[in-house]
Amino acid sequence: MGSEVKEQVGVLVVAYNAVSTLAEVLDRLPESFRKKVQHILVCDDASSDATHLVALGYQSTSDLPLTVIRHDVNLGYGGNQKAGYRWCIDNGLDIVVLLHGDGQYSPEIIETLVSPLEGGSGGAVFGSRMMVKGGARGGGMPLYKFVGNKILTYFENRLAGLSLTEWHSGYRAYRTDALRLIPFETYSDNFDFDTEIILGLHKAGKSITEVPIPTYYGDEISRVNGLKYAKDVLIHASKHRMEAVGLGGGIRSDTNEYSLKRDELSSHSILVKWISQLQPKQVLDLGCSSGLLSAELRALGQHVTGVDIAKFDGILNNVDVFVEADLNLGVPPSVSGPFDVVVAGDVLEHLVSPHILLASARRCLAKDGSLLVSVPNFAHWYPRLRVLTGTFDYDQRGIIDSGHVRFFTRKSFQALVERAGYQVIRSAPVGLPVSIVSKKEKSSIMKRIVLVVEKLVLSVWPSMFAYQYVLELKQTKISQTESAQNFG
C-alpha cells in the first residue's frame, strides 16, 4: 500500500502597520503546528511603518518556512487577501489559514481551524466569537460592535439562507479547491470581501464549519468605516438573495419549465379562482409548460387541452389533450375548439408577435367565451429603478426574465388587446410573489405583513406596484372607453 499523501497547509498573514505585533503573532504559533506547516506567507500591504523590515528580520532568524511579500501600493484588506490566496493556490497549498498580523486573533488555536478541513472535507472553517455566550463581551468587544455584529449577522443569515453565529470574524481557514470554485479575485478590495467570500462559497455549495474562538480587543486601530461596511455587506447579501430567487443575471430559455405560483394573490391563484367562477367545460391552456396549472383546472372538473413548444415530463398526466406547437405562429390549426375559456398565463411576453396569438385565439373561443391572460408590468418600480440607475439587464425570472421579448405597461397592453378585437371585462393587479420574501409557512408573520402592505400599495398606485396584471377578455362588444375603464 502506498503512503498517504500529506496535505500542504499554509498560513496567510495579512499585515498593515503591524510593526509592534507581527513578530509576537508569529512567536505564538504552537510548536505542533510549526512542525507541520509548509508555508507562511506574510503579505505587507504597503505599510507606512517598518512592518516589512520586521518580517524580513524574522525570516532571517526563524526556522519557520516564511515568505515575505510587500505590495508597492496598498491593495486594501480584500485586495491583500486576493493576492495571498492566489499565491497559495499557485504554490500548491491544500489548506490556507487567514491570520491577522495585529494580534486580534489567537494563533494558539490555529489547529482547531485546520483539522476539520484535513482529509479533503468541507470548504471553510470560521472562528466565531459569538458561539460561547458572553465570550465576545467578556473579551472586550465594545457594546456597539457586539450589537452591530448580531444585527448584521441576523439579516445576512435571513437573506442568504445560512445560520452562522458570526459573519464578521477574520479568523478563517479555506481549502484551496473551494477557493478555485469562486471568483474571489472579482470581489471587493475592502472589508466587505469577507462577506462576499461567504456568499461565494454558499453559492458553490461548499460547507462552512464554525469553531469557537476567544475574543481579544487590544489597542489596535480599527480601520473599518462601520456605516459603509454595514451598507456594503447588506447590499451583497441582498443581491445574493435576489439572484437566488431569479432576480439576477442569468439565461433562461423558453423551454425551461415554469413553476406554479401558489401564493394567495398570485396570478395563477387568481386565474384558477376566475375559472372556477366561470365554470367552463372546455379549457385551452396556451403555454401549459408541464401542466401544473392544467392539473388544477382538471381538478375543478374541466376538460383541458394544453399547447406548448416542448413536451415536458408529466404533461400527459396533467392535461386531457396535448399539442406540441410554437405559439409564435399562433394557435395551431389542429386546435379548433370551441373553448369556453382560453388561458394564456405568462405567455404573451415570450412571443415576438403576441397579436398573432391573440388573433388566432378568437377562432377557438366559444361565442361568449373568455380569454384569460396574465402579463408582467414593465412600469413596476423594479424595472423603472433599473432603467433610472442605468443598471437594466435581464434576470433569470420575473418582469425582465431573459426569455421575455416583449414588455408591456397597462396602457400598451390595453392598446394591444383592443387592436386584436378584445375588450377588457375585468383586471386585477398582482404584487410580488410572496414566496420571494419568505419560503416559510403561509401563516408566517413576514408573509402576512407583505400581503397587507401589497394590498394597500396596489390599491393606491397599481401601475407602480403591480408586478403583473391578470385580465379577462372577451371579443369586442363594448366601446374602447368602457374597456379602458375595466382595465383601470
Structure description:
The chain is an alpha/beta fold. It folds into 2 domains: 9-244, Alpha-Beta Complex (Spore Coat Polysaccharide Biosynthesis Protein SpsA, Chain A); 267-486, 3-Layer(aba) Sandwich (Rossmann fold), CATH 3.40.50. The chain has helices at 22-27, 31-34, 51-61, 76-90, 110-114, 135-138, 143-160, 176-179, 193-203, 226-244, 267-278, 292-299, 315-318, 354-362, 381-388, 410-419, 434-437, 445-460, 462-465, 480-486, and strands at 9-15, 39-44, 66-70, 95-100, 124-128, 172-175, 208-212, 282-286, 303-308, 321-324, 339-345, 365-376, 422-430, 468-475. A 7-stranded mixed beta sheet has the order 3-2-1-4-6-5-7, sandwiched between helices. Strands 10-9-8-11-12-14-13 form a 7-stranded mixed beta sheet, sandwiched between helices. Helix 13 (315-318) links the parallel strand 9 and strand 10. 41% of the residues are buried.
Give me the secondary-structure topology.
Layout (H helix, E strand, L loop, with lengths): L8 E7 L6 H6 L3 H4 L4 E6 L6 H11 L4 E5 L5 H15 L4 E6 L9 H5 L9 E5 L6 H4 L4 H18 L11 E4 H4 L13 H11 L4 E5 L13 H19 L22 H12 L3 E5 L5 H8 L3 E6 L6 H4 L2 E4 L14 E7 L8 H9 L2 E12 L4 H8 L21 H10 L2 E9 L3 H4 L7 H16 L1 H4 L2 E8 L4 H7 L2
Helix pairs in contact: 7-10
Which features characterize this protein?
488 residues, alpha/beta, Spore Coat Polysaccharide Biosynthesis Protein SpsA, Chain A, Rossmann fold, 2 domains, seven-stranded mixed beta sheet
